[in-house]
Amino acid sequence: MPSASTTIVSKCTICPNQKSTLKSLKFSVSDLPMLSCQYIQKGVLLSRPPYSIDNLITLLKHSLSITLTHFPPLAGRLITDPNGHVHILCNDAGVEFVQAKAGRLFIDNILSPLDVPDCFKEFFTFDNTLSYSGHFKPLAAVQVTELADGVFIGCTVNHAVTDGTSFWHFFNTFAEICKGAKKISNSPDFSRTTVFNSPAVLKFPSGGPKATFSGDEPLRERIFHFSREAIQKLKSRANEHDPSEILGKQANDSWKVVNLDTNGNGNGNCNGKVNPVNTTLKTNTAAQISSFQSLSAQLWRSVTRARKLPNSRTTTFRMAVNCRHRLEPKLDPYYFGNAIQSIPTVASVGELLSRELSYGAELLHRNVVAHGDGTVRKGIAAWEDEPRLFPLGNFDGASITMGSSPRFPMYDNDFGWGLPLAVRSGRANKFDGKISAFPGREGNGSVDLEVVLAPETMDGLESDGEFMQYVSANMRATTH
């Protein structure tokens, strides 16, 4: 593959085309922990537009300015008030817009390799930037990179300002306006009167927080594609069990009670303490294990096996969930901000690998189903008792963190000349065991998993017949 050699053509600041009527938005208990996470970096690969790049850049700048009028917080900056509360000051300071060129790269060249090429990391700005930096940097940026036969539109957004739901709402609206919409389909909800609103203060070290993972260990990154048919086979296999057997086995098992951290985010935290929230799994949960839980369970098994961990070790699978519909009353589906918690599911390596797929799938399923209004509120209360940053990383070498969602409308980003050919991310928030779930391009329940692992673990996963039997052999068929 040719050298990426992405060069910057120009940089500028894009401001909303109308002044914001919002003054400020206070950070919630779901926003604050993300200040130690890096900016979200996601983007879409598109065929070449039917007009010049200069015309495209003009159109994108104009459309972005209009989009920011609907999303004024993204054009603002962070401030910390005298009481220690962090807010978004909606001051119309604008976002960064970068035009770049990688004229030697062709779409086929960058989609063909098994491993995701490093060139995608050059298609985003604000690398290694923690969300706390929004106090003095833009909260969002768009980079448009011209390829030999296409373009990549990369969007970078402060993770303390948006979760995946809000991120893709903004991205979809940007595309919708670029395509010519005079009225947007869905307006963001900026209310701050939810259960996530809190008087709690999160204290920061002098100079701000540091990343909670090193970011410099060797990693491999690969997209694994799963067709609807393959996932249905997994789902059928995961549901082949007698639930009473698992319930009987778990009657006295320690992991039927999940220990949530202070953000509802798993067992480990920065100061080594655990804040247990009793979420004893109920026996009357919905019987059917979902497609995504089945796929996640298979990944958990196979990655754990590839790591060659002793049977006595404990392994954790953390799954980020959207809490908007889990609360009572429900939040607006387009609530703008973070409304996520992370559900940790724990098992011994020996149990996970010696039993059927249904065992791990059932553990994941019961934890997800149990994460309702009461559990969300307990997680919030625990965080208020001990406010802290979110510990992103794989601290014990036995964890998997699942982010993003195949439900996000990533392929709805038609900027006027067709749907994306692929969705890719930058280098942000990646470590051994970080998985991101994307919808497959063909839709219909297909899923792409962006898997980031230590090289030797990735080698083991690629040799795992139980896992690879479900992976589509011809990835090229899924991108064109």
Automatic annotation (TrEMBL):
Pfam families: Transferase. InterPro entries: CAT-like_dom_sf, Sec_Metabolite_Acyltrans. Transmembrane segments: none annotated. The keyword Transferase applies. Keywords: Transferase. GO terms for molecular function: transferase activity. It comes from the Eukaryota. PANTHER family: BAHD ACYLTRANSFERASE DCR, FAMILY REGULATORY PROTEIN, PUTATIVE (AFU_ORTHOLOGUE AFUA_3G14730)-RELATED. This is BAHD acyltransferase DCR. It comes from Erythroxylum novogranatense. The lineage of its organism: Eukaryota, Viridiplantae, Streptophyta, Embryophyta, Tracheophyta.
